[in-house]
Amino acid sequence: MNLPAAHLRLKTRFFTTLVVLSSLCGDFSLSCGMRRVGPLLTLSPLAYLRAVLNPLVALGISLLILWLFLHMALLSWADLSYVLPVTSIGYVLAALAGRLFLHETISAGRWTGIALITAGVVLVARTGGHRPEAAR
Amino acid sequence: MRWLLVMVIAASTTIADVAQAAAMKSHGEIRDFRPGAIRRLLALLARNKLIITSVTALAISFFAFIALLSVADLSFAVPATAASYVIETVLAKYLLKEPVTAGRWVGASLVACGVLLLSR
C-alpha cells in the first residue's frame, strides 16, 4: 500500500473512533439527564429550555455538537455507506459497558445482536471506506 | 406517541445524514486541522444549504429523541435507527453514487438485524 493510502486509512480509523466515543458519551449523558428532568411530551419551548439547562443534558448536547463536527470531517473523505455501519459498533460497546459497569444482563437474543453487528462492522470495515480517488 | 416519535427520528436522521454526506463529498477531504482553517471551514459550511438542511433535520431528530428518552428507555429509542441503515445505504448508492459493494450491503443488513435484536 502506498503512503497516502495508508495515511488516509489511519485518519479514517482515528476519526471513526472519536465519532463513536463522542456519540456514546453524549447519548449516555443525555439519557441520565432526561431521566432526572422527567417526561417531556409537549411542544412548549419552555419545557425544552428547562431540559437543556440540566447539566447532564447540556454536557450531552456539547458532546453531540463535537460529534457533528467529527462526523462532518469524516464524511469529507469517507463514504456514508462505510461510516454508517462501522460506527454502529457503538451499540455493542454500549451493551458491553452496561454489563460491565451497571451489571445488566445480556440475553441470548441480545448476544446474537452483538455478534451480528460485530460481523457487519468487520465486513464493512474491510471495504476501506474512502473513495479510490481520495487516496491519490 | 412513542412510535410516531420513532418515525420522526428515523426520517429526520436519514435526511440529516444524506444531506451532510452530499455537502462534505462536494467539499472534499479536510486536510488542515489548524484552528484558523477550522474557523474558516465552519464559516463556509454555515452558509451551505445542504449543511443548513442537515443541521435543521438533526435538531428535529434530537428533540424527538430527548422527548422519546423522557418516556422510554434508551433501548426503545435505538431501533428507530435500525431501518435507517438499509434506507441510507440505498440512498448512498443512488443519490450519492457511492460504490456500495456486496460487502457493504451484507454488512449494513447484518448491522440492521443486529441493532433490532440488541434493542429487545
Describe this structure in words.
The complex is a heterodimer of chains A (136) and B (120). Chain A is mainly alpha-helical. Chain A has one domain. Chain A has 6 helices and no strands. In chain A, helix 1 runs antiparallel to helix 3 and helix 1 crosses helix 5. The N and C termini of chain A lie close together (12 Å). Chain B has 120 residues and is mainly α. Chain B has one domain. Chain B contains 6 helices and no strands. The longest helix of chain B is centred in the first third of the chain and has 26 residues. Chains A and B meet through helix 1, helix 3, helix 4, helix 5 and helix 6 of A and helix 1, helix 3, helix 5 and helix 6 of B.
Strand content of chain A: under 5%
Task: Give helix % range of chain A.
Answer: over 70%
Number of helices of chain A: 6
Number of strands of chain B: 0
Hey, which two chains have the biggest interface? A-B, 56 and 53 residues
Structural class of chain A comes to mainly alpha
N-to-C terminal Cα separation of chain A, in Å?
Answer: 12 Å
Shape of chain B: globular
Strand content of chain B: under 5%
From the structure above, extract its key features.
heterodimer; A: 136 residues; mainly alpha; 6 helices; 0% strand; globular; B: 120 residues
Explain the layout of strands and helices.
The complex is a heterodimer of chains A (136) and B (120).
Chain A: H1 3-37, H2 45-52, H3 55-75, H4 80-86, H5 89-101, H6 108-125
Chain B: H1 2-27, H2 35-45, H3 49-71, H4 74-77, H5 82-94, H6 102-118
Helix pairs in contact in B: 1-3, 1-5, 5-6
